[in-house]
Write a structure and sequence with these properties.
Layout (H helix, E strand, L loop, with lengths): L6 E3 L3 H8 L17 E7 L19 E6 L5 E2 L3 E4 L5 E4 L3 E2 L4 E5 H10 L14 E9 L2 E10 L9 E4 L5 E4 L36 H8 L1
Length: 218
C-alpha cells in the first residue's frame, strides 16, 4: 500500500489546542509523520437503515466511517481527528487502537463528540452526491493530513459503502443496493462490514442478507 504524502496546514490553531487537550499523560507509541499505520478503511455516506443500532433510523446518526490499524503496535488515538471535505473537525478520539483492529465511527458518535466539545452539531456531515473524508493528526505545531478518500455519487447511494481491502484497493460494496453502471469503482456484490475487517474482493467475500449482516457486526 502506498501511503499518501503528508500535507501540512497551519490554519487550525483551535483544533490543535482542542485535540492536544485529549492527549494522554502516560507514555505512548510514537509514529513518524508519513509512516502512520492508521488508515481510513470504509465509508457509508447515505444510510437507509439503522446502522448504529439505536432502534431508530436517522440519516445523520446512521452515517459511518471506519478506521483500521494496519500496523503491528497499538496506536494512541489522542492526536487524531477526522473531517469531511470542509476540514471542520467531526470527531476526535482517545484511547488506543490495537494492531489489526478497526474502529467504527457513526454519525451518532460524532454528534456526541461535537456536543461534548462545544462544536456545531452536524454529525459526520458526509455529502450524498460526493465528498471527501480526511484523517488528520496533530503533530507539534502542525496539523498533518495523513489519509483521505474522495468518493463519487455512485459510491454514496443509499446503503452503498466503499471499503479499502487488505491490498489497499478501494471497492464498491453494493450488496444492499446493486450498482449497474460503469463508473469505477465498479460493483462487487459485497456487503458493508461496519466494525469488522474488510474482505470484499478476496476469496472469503460473499453476498449476504441484511439479517446475516446485522449478526456479523453487532
Amino acid at each position: 500500500m502506498i501511503a499518501p504524502r503528508p500535507r501540512r496546514i497551519r490554519s487550525l490553531p483551535f483544533v490543535m489546542l482542542l485535540l492536544l487537550a485529549f492527549a494522554l499523560v502516560a507514555p505512548r507509541t510514537v509514529v513518524a509523520q508519513g509512516a502512520s499505520t492508521l488508515r481510513l478503511n470504509e465509508i457509508l455516506a447515505a444510510p437507509a437503515r439503522d446502522w448504529d443500532g439505536s432502534g431508530t433510523f436517522s440519516s445523520r446518526d446512521d452515517e459511518w466511517i471506519e478506521l483500521v490499524n494496519t500496523g503491528s503496535v497499538p496506536i494512541d488515538l489522542a492526536p487524531w481527528f477526522v473531517t469531511d471535505g470542509d476540514s471542520v473537525p467531526r470527531m476526535g478520539f482517545s484511547g488506543t487502537l490495537a494492531p489489526g483492529a478497526v474502529l467504527l465511527v457513526t454519525g451518532a458518535a460524532s454528534v456526541a463528540w461535537e456536543r461534548a466539545n462545544g462544536q456545531p452539531v452536524f454529525g459526520l456531515s458526509l455529502g450524498n452526491t460526493g465528498d471527501r473524508v480526511l484523517l488528520w493528526r496533530v503533530a507539534g505545531p502542525d496539523t498533518v493530513l495523513v489519509d483521505e478518500y474522495a468518493y463519487r455519487t455512485h459510491e454514496c447511494a443509499a446503503d452503498r459503502a466503499v471499503g479499502r481491502g487488505p491490498d489497499g484497493v478501494w471497492r464498491l460494496e453494493d450488496a444492499l443496493n446493486p450498482y449497474t453502471g460503469t463508473a469505477l469503482p465498479g460493483p462487487t456484490g459485497c456487503a458493508p462490514t461496519p466494525g469488522t475487517p474488510n474482505s470484499c474482493g478476496t476469496v472469503d467475500a460473499v453476498r449476504t442478507t441484511w439479517t446475516r449482516l446485522k449478526r456479523r457486526w453487532r
